[in-house]
Amino acid sequence: MSKIYISENASPLLKDYLSGNNHIIVEIKSTDQVYESISSHPDIFMCRINGEIIQSENDLGYSYPENIKYNGVQVGKYFIHNTNFTAQKLMAAVNNAGLTLVHVNQGYTKCSIVVVDENSVITSDEGIRNALLPLGIDVLLISVGSVKLKGLPYGFLGGASGRIENTMLFNGNLSGHPDYISISNFIFDRGLTLQYFDEYQLEDIGSIIEA
Fold it and tell me: How far is it, in rounded angstroms, from Cα 183 to Cα 11?
C-alpha cells in the first residue's frame, strides 16, 4: 500500500483502479495560486526526491516561470529542471541527496518526462532528449501532442502518467497515441507492466505521484 497524489480532476476510473489496488489517494484540490489549467496538478506543487515529497508552501506565482518551481524530476542520480527557477527548498533537498543537476530550458520538466526507470525516460521535448542522451540515459522521443489539457492546445504525456510499483499507469487511452507501439515496447522491454483506460482520451492531470 502506498500513498498516491493525484488531481481531483482525475478520471473516476483511474481513482477506482488505484483504490482497488489498496493505494491511499490524496487528491490535490484546485487553487487560484496558479492558472486554471494546472491548478490541481500535483507536479506543480510537489516533487519527489529519493521517495520524499518536497511540497510548495505558498511560494508559487500564478504564471510561468513562477509556477514551475517544483516541476523538476529525479531520474536516477540526476535532477532535471530549468534550474534558473527551481525553488530553494527543492534545490536544498536535491543537494542533500547528492544528485547531479541537469539544466534544461523546458520549465515544465516533470510534465514533459515519463520516468520509466532510473535510466529510461519518454519525452516529446528534443531539448530534454539532447540533454539526457550524453548522460547514458535511454530516451524515447515521441511526437508532440495527442494529450488533452483543459484550456490549452495540448498537454504532456509525463503529466498524464506515473509509475506505480512495477506498472506504468496512464490517465486515458494510450493506444490512441500515434506512438503507442514504440511507447509500449519501451516499457515492456524494461520488465514493467502497462495500465491505461480505453474509455477516454489521454489527459494531462499533473502526473500520478507515488510516495
Answer: 22
